[in-house]
Design goal:
The chain has 578 residues and is α+β, with helices and mostly antiparallel strands. α11 packs across α12. It contains 18 helices and 31 strands. The radius of gyration is 35 Å and the shape is elongated. The longest helix has 16 residues, at 462-477. Bound molecules: guanosine-5'-triphosphate and magnesium ion (MG).
């Protein structure tokens, strides 16, 4: 199914065209029919020859009902833009067109109607110039041009993108009513994803269940976007549901009252939207306080929370002022308390202002802004968590630069301490989870976690640590002159002490009784690589200023690490460690 909204000035013949195309009366209310004017949204559908079903959301053209108009236009992927041949481009033609542009609706058709009343040439030229979509001339009264209009609709719908059927659902409710015996029913335009009978959904934060579904008046077990859909909800009072609310796939959306947005930089939009405005998105219209941040960006504070995503298009409107299109850049923006915070935020958003193309922040950027974020939250913001290069642990993603900084701070925090509780480290680092502290520790030897504490050292007995500390100055000047058995015994480096210290990464044990300080092996490989030629064991002994007792097991050790390589019985080469 495809869904198309009408648009155009009052009385230009939108409802007449929908009626002629579908045989269904879109003006549902007596008052509408009495006044010959659409007040609220109307719904009708037909099947196109050789194409699928197409549903129309018929909107009112009168200036007083722009909010209703926007509730219909908000979620649709395509528009039938109607201009009367005998009236041409009028005020609401302009306003509706601005709304179409602001919402980024790219697909549509221009119908110049009432062609029986006047030569459509001038209106076609005037409107065609502005709209730039394929155009047809038609008469809702005589039926002239309806065949061509149907063929043009077929071409239009064939070119519409297919939404992802597995995407999370955000159904903007445009009607809610009670059906006797069934209970509360809500309707909307499903723009992505799939709805099934029995699905759990969120309505204003509460879990509800889909009791039954209808599409174009027929009961169905499941509906895939794009579609007009009626959802019968189990255990929901009609009074709780109104236009502008949403049915959401659980755990997939973030409701927010604050969002940072890019402002459309179109000249006909005026400089800036007023401070008190109304945000229109989907079928919702919500009061919005607009705080300019930098050129082309603003912070919106909404009258009630909305499930917004990075990249969402919406518009700001105040009666009597031009419409301003906005694109959501951040749905969890930082508080602006400190002096200069607004400027800093504007600088962060500057790469995404108009004139930089149509970019919106990707996962990596949002992660950089946030530092630490749950995978699911990033996804709910509209970003692909797998697209971001990230550190972290478990469900937590951490910006790599932030991770390095945290690791550094953890090192400082625990240095020279007897071991601070993991939770204390978590608090000091401002992290949301112990898991992250543990991951930082694991990536920073010789730190370790034991008994719920971060151990700065090695976890070794003091006697072993003391013995290693005694060895250290001896090897400072001659790192490859490993002490002999007698000296090791004097230092207190028993076989067991050496084994423990080697496991903790403080010593390198090359062979029984042959011990160097940690790092001496890779340093040796670098020195040998610097020779710049194949070398013998004797060459290595000289280069490293040591003895056969050390150099033979050292070279074997380096062979095992892959830092040196035998060429034949005599010669080796060194591949320097990074
Ligand atoms: N002669 C003639 N009259 C038409 C044609 N299309 C619509 N009309 C008449 O124009 C008037 C307005 O038509 P509607 O279809 O209600 O216009 P609308 O655009 O839906 O108006 P709103 O919903 O109030 O914005 C009605 O009296 C129609 O009968 C047409 O092609 N030819
Ligand atoms: Mg109408």
């Amino acid at each position: 199914m495809h869904v198309i909204a009408t648009a155009g000035h009052v009385d230009h013949g939108k409802s007449t065209l929908v009626r002629a195309l579908t045989g269904i009366e879109p003006d549902r209310w007596d008052e509408e029919r009495r006044r010959g004017m659409t007040i609220d949204l109307g719904f009708a559908w037909t099947t196109l020859d050789g194409g699928g079903q197409v549903a129309f959301v018929d909107v009112p053209g009168h200036a007083r009902f722009v909010t209703n108009m926007l509730a219909g236009l908000g979620p649709v992927p395509a528009v039938l833009f109607v201009v009367a041949a005998d009236q041409g481009w009028q005020a609401q033609s302009q306003e509706h067109w601005e709304a179409v542009r602001a919402l980024g609706v790219e697909h549509g058709l221009l119908a110049v109607t009432r062609c029986d009343l006047m030569d459509p040439g001038p209106a076609l030229e005037e409107a065609g110039e502005r709209v730039g979509w394929p155009a047809v001339t038609v008469s809702g009264a005589t039926g002239d041009g309806l065949g061509e209009l149907r063929r043009a609709l077929l071409r239009l719908t064939a070119g519409l993108p297919t939404p992802d059927p597995r995407a999370p659902v955000r159904l903007w409710i445009d009607r809610a009513f009670t059906v006797k015996g069934a209970g509360t029913v809500v309707t909307g335009t499903l723009t992505a994803g799939t709805l099934r009978v029995g699905d759990p959904l969120l309505l204003a934060g509460e879990r509800v269940r889909v009791k039954a579904l209808q599409a174009l008046g027929e009961p169905v077990g499941e509906v895939t976007a794009t579609a007009r859909v009626a959802v019968n909800l189990r255990g929901v009072e009609r009074a709780r549901t109104t236009r502008g609310m949403t049915l959401l796939t659980p755990d997939s959306w973030l409701e927010t009252e604050v969002a940072d947005v890019r402002l459309d930089a179109r000249s006909d939009v005026g400089d800036r939207p007023p401070r008190e405005s109304v945000l229109h998105i989907g079928s919702a219209s919500v009061p919005a306080r607009v705080r300019p941040l930098g050129p082309g960006t603003a912070r919106l504070t909404l009258g009630r929370p909305l499930p917004l995503r990075v990249g969402d298009r919406a518009l700001l409107r105040t009666s009597g002022r031009p419409i301003a299109g906005v694109r959501v850049l951040d749905v969890r923006p930082p508080a602006l308390r400190r002096a200069g915070a607004a400027g800093a935020r504007a600088a962060q958003l500057a790469p995404f202002t108009a004139g930089t193309g149509d970019r919106v922040p990707e996962a990596e950027t949002v992660l950089r802004w946030r530092g630490v974020v749950r995978r699911a939250e990033l996804a709910a913001m509209g970003c692909d968590p797998d697209a971001a290069e990230a550190s972290g642990a478990g469900e937590w993603l951490v910006d790599p630069a932030r991770w390095a900084e945290l690791s550094e701070r953890l090192g400082e925090l625990v240095a020279g301490q007897p071991g601070i509780p993991v939770d204390a480290a978590r608090t000091a680092l401002g992290l949301p989870s112990r898991e992250l502290v543990e991951a930082l520790v694991a990536a920073r030897p010789p730190l370790s976690v034991a008994d719920g504490r971060v151990d700065a050292g090695t976890g070794l007995p003091d006697s072993v640590l003391a013995a290693v500390e005694r060895l250290r100055p001896e090897l400072a000047a001659a790192p490859y002159q490993a002490p002999g058995a007698a000296r090791l015994a004097e230092l207190g480096l028993t076989t067991r002490a050496v084994a423990l210290a080697a496991r903790a990464g403080l010593l390198v044990r090359l062979a029984d009784g042959v011990v160097l300080l940690a790092g001496a092996d890779t340093a040796a490989a670098r020195l040998l690589a610097a020779l710049g030629r194949p070398f013998t064991a004797a060459d290595a002994r000289t280069a490293l200023d040591t003895t056969r007792r050390v150099v033979i097991p050292l070279l074997e050790h380096l062979d095992r690490l892959g830092l040196t390589r035998r060429l034949d019985d005599r010669l080796r080469v060194a591949d320097p460690p990074p």
